[in-house]
Design a protein that fits this description.
alpha/beta, TIM Barrel, eight-stranded parallel barrel, two-stranded antiparallel sheet, about 35% helix
Length: about 220
C-alpha cells in the first residue's frame, strides 16, 4: 500500500490567531468545535463563523457538529460557512443524501468511535456515503456522551484494519502528541491526523508543541 505523509488537522481552534498559527506551522485543516455534550474546545457558532471566514480557500475548515438531525446540521453549516462537516454522532433523522443535496460542494466526514471490532462494521457501512472517516476515542453509550477531545488513544490495531478495509481517506484522532505520533503513523498509516490537546498548554495552542509535532510528521516523506 502506497503511503503518503499524512495531512494534519489542528482541532479545537478558538480564535483567528490560533487558526493562523496552526496554518503557519503546516496544518491543512482547522477544526471548529460547536456545542457538545462534553469535551474541550467548544466555541459559539458566531465565533466559528468569524474564524471560518478568515481561513484560506486551500485549507479545509471542519465544523464539528453533535447534531443528529440532518435539517439542523444543514442550518448550522449554512450559518457557519465551513467547507467540511465533521459529524461526531450518528444521524438519527435524515441521511447523508439529504446533506449532499442541501449542501453541494461540502465535504462530509463521519466520526467512528473506536471501542471494539463493531466499529469496523460501522465504518464499512458509512464509507460509501461520506468523503472521509475520522477515527476517535469517544463513547456514545455513556450517560453523558464523549464525542471527542478525550486526550486518550484507542486500539490502533483496529484503526489500521479500518484503513486497510475502507476505500475512503481515514483520519486518526485520539490522544496524539509529539511523543507518540510517529508510532501512530507507522502503525495505522492514516490519510490524516487530528490533534487537539496534544499541542496545547492550559487550553492554549502551544508553539513549541506544534513545532515538535510537525517535526515528527514531516519526517515522513
Amino acid at each position: 500500500m502506497e503511503f503518503i505523509k499524512p495531512k494534519v488537522k489542528i482541532c479545537c481552534i478558538s480564535s483567528v490567531e490560533e487558526a493562523t498559527l496552526a496554518i503557519q506551522y503546516g496544518a491543512s485543516a482547522i477544526g471548529l468545535v460547536s456545542e457538545m455534550p462534553s469535551g474541550p474546545g467548544v466555541i459559539s457558532d458566531e465565533l466559528a463563523f468569524k474564524i471560518a471566514a478568515t481561513i484560506p480557500a486551500n485549507i479545509a475548515s471542519f465544523l464539528l457538529t453533535s447534531k443528529q438531525n440532518a435539517l439542523d446540521i444543514i442550518e448550522q453549516q449554512r450559518y457557519v460557512g465551513a467547507n467540511t462537516l465533521q459529524i461526531v454522532d450518528r444521524l438519527t433523522h435524515g441521511n447523508y443524501k439529504d446533506l449532499r443535496e442541501a449542501l453541494p460542494g461540502i465535504n462530509l466526514v463521519q466520526v467512528i468511535h473506536v471501542n471494539n471490532d463493531e466499529c469496523i462494521t460501522e465504518a464499512l457501512k458509512v464509507a460509501p456515503d461520506v468523503d472521509a472517516i475520522l477515527l476517535d476515542s469517544g463513547n456514545q453509550n455513556l450517560p453523558v456522551k464523549l464525542l471527542g477531545g478525550t486526550g486518550r488513544a484507542h486500539d490502533w490495531s483496529i484503526s489500521r484494519r479500518i484503513v486497510e478495509l475502507v476505500n475512503k481517506p481515514v483520519f486518526l484522532a485520539g490522544g496524539l502528541n509529539p511523543e507518540n505520533v510517529s508510532g501512530a503513523v507507522e502503525q495505522v498509516r492514516p490519510h490524516g491526523l487530528d490533534i487537539c490537546s496534544g499541542v496545547r498548554t492550559d487550553n492554549k495552542l502551544d508553539e513549541r508543541k506544534l513545532e515538535a509535532f510537525f517535526q515528527q510528521v514531516n519526517s515522513f516523506r
